[in-house]
Amino acid sequence: MDDYLSVNRANWDERAPAHAKAQSYGVARYRADPDHLSDVVRFDRELLGDVSGLRGVHLQCHIGTDTLSLHRLGARMSGLDFSAASLAEARSLAASTGADIDYHESDVYSALDVLEPGGYDLVYTGVGALCWLPSIERWADVVAGLLRPGGRLFVRDGHPVLYSLDETREPLTPRFPYFERAEPLVWEEAGTYADADSRFEHTTTHSWNHGLGETVTALLDRGFQLTRLVEHRSAPWEALPGHMVLDDVPVLGGAVPEWRLRDERDRIPLTFTAAAVRP
């Protein structure tokens, strides 16, 4: 089973430098504007609330744009990722912007080996993270182990309904498992969603879906109190090419560009936000 780590890591090591150069990640804007925040963090800023002074950790932080954004909102941030190449980009971005962020190389399930157990006020997980983990129960164990009593989890991710759809069919049709299963979905992709011109050597990835009920129940079983669960009609990436349009979504203090269904926008949820507190 652990072979998925080496397979996925090889792919993400290639994605990292491509994403650092991609217009969609906009790394140069963080260096040019000390107040710039990622669209992902801006989208959820009202739901996220005040994070100033909190000791936070961003799991599966990739190249660190959301991590830096949380730092700019006043949190004392750490980042964790299993890709050395991603962390190199994240550290470079933090150093070039004068941000005091410590980064740690580890897969999620080994996070408690490199991070302080019970030492965090906030665990943050961003878009496109949970699908790379085979077990949502093990993820919930890690989150519970990292948070101090009273600490909180905040996650926005792709909705499992979205991940079950086959965008190559018209109309959109469920094809892939909605619920978690032991066997991964195996994908072959020459490039990356962030840069259509990129071509990689390591093109195979393994992923899993996790039903929304499975994710929430995993947290409830560990004593978490769910404080927020919101399903959204938009996503920050073109998750269903050919079926979506880019639109401005109103958020606290302005708007952010997000992708919505071109037709019948109320048909399905595309992403969700969940927040929970460890008593």
From TrEMBL:
Signal peptide: none annotated. Keywords: Methyltransferase, Transferase. It comes from Actinokineospora bangkokensis. Residues 60-151 form the Methyltransferase domain. One of its GO terms (molecular function) is methyltransferase activity. One of its GO terms (biological process) is methylation. InterPro entries: Methyltransf_25 (IPR041698), SAM-dependent_MTases_sf (IPR029063). This is Methyltransferase.
